[in-house]
């Protein structure tokens, strides 16, 4: 298990100026990201059913769960795109639905999100896609933007492809460009929605290496949602398992992968035999 220090997180200037004091966890600390007893239904279909999780700061957590169990819905709650029916989403100890829209917008800027397909703008080349958040959210001059964008694109191995458009590059390159774009605002939190989807095993493995390298270099609280047990085994410091709208296990990855618990074992071994069924 590795944890990487992120010194600037301790800088309270980074925390959005919000009236109420931040909530502290059971250990008395303010956590980067907490889900507290969250319920969410779409019509009569309950997706989150009292879900709680305190993500470990400055570590890579992987959340695994069967299809349709609410992993993407969890990500959307964390970034403030969905509002819980009940419960709290605490970011830097602040309930993001107990603050103003402006404050929520400021908090959102502390996130980098890598969507499944990279979510690049088709009409912009990789350079402009990567520069987009800097142009939208900062007043940095173009030469400073160029420095940041080229540094990030180099880190993900795309410095030769800056002029290409998303439809001219491979799926793996689109994901790497999406990753570079997710990092340009130097986020405290990076969310990955199935970063391995649509990639072959070798490219998946290379992307996992990149996630670990970038985390080691920049720090931050990373959350990876995936189906791929091999990716989870490779990148995770911590693992969360979701089942029937709840987090049924959260802990250090090494322990989870060595667990005797039949549910955890079946889940992480991808076995058909065990307590997990198709329902
Ligand atoms: N906006 C929405 N309106 C109605 N139902 C929704 C909405 N968003 C998600 N759902 C439903 O919530 C359930 C959970 O969806 P979600 O995409 O979070 O699953 P997931 O665990 O990410 O699945 P997968 O691993 O297959 O991507 C699904 O049944 C989905 O149809």
TrEMBL record:
Signal peptide: none annotated. It holds the Pfam family ABC_tran. The keyword ATP-binding applies. It comes from the Bacteria. GO terms for molecular function: ATP binding. Keywords: ATP-binding, Nucleotide-binding, Transport. This is ATP-binding cassette domain-containing protein. The keyword ATP-binding applies. Residues 33-269 form the ABC transporter domain.
